[in-house]
């Protein structure tokens, strides 16, 4: 009988991403990934000697997906709404990205200045027609509000009402920038 084709590291990362997306980050184990891929745990443990390494690679994959989702926006308001919509549509990924302990002891400014967030910050600066350095204090406040909505929605604390959220964000943006 021919030997089964080896599962690649990339296939494992994609499988882990699917698993987290469907069942949540707590479901990511060598055993659950092996079941997802239809293999034994041996190849998973060989490629990822520690679960922390697997989670980190899966986190990077989820973060790329999140960034692509956000950068498909059309303007600053849409960027914020897409961030919140992501929490409503991709709750497990949102929780993995922002509630799994990845950002422990990090300030909001440090978080928005991370290399992974450069594209989002640049898009916000373009939407506000301001240089990136000038937008950081304003974006920090807007981000805190947008993330707050997203977090509440991802945890089923409030219902997702895009019209209402849009109205509230417009009031905040106007207060911070002096324009609509």
3D structure, described in words:
This protein has 180 residues and is mainly alpha-helical. The chain folds into 2 domains: 59 residues, Arc Repressor Mutant, subunit A (Orthogonal Bundle); 109 residues. Helix content is 72%, strand content 0%. It is built from 10 helices and no strands. Helix 1 crosses helix 2. The longest helix is centred in the C-terminal third of the chain and has 23 residues. The N and C termini lie far apart (68 Å).
Which radius of gyration do the C-alpha atoms yield?
A: 19 Å
How many distinct folded domains?
2
Class inferred from helices and paired strands: mainly alpha
State the end-to-end CA separation: 68 Å
Mean pLDDT: 90
Q: Number of DSSP helices?
A: 10
What helical percentage do the residues reach? Answer: over 70%
| Most strands sheet | none
Shape: elongated
Number of strands: 0
Order of helices and strands: HHHHHHHHHH
**What fraction of residues sit in β-strands?**
under 5%
Unreliable stretches, pLDDT < 50, 5 or more residues? none
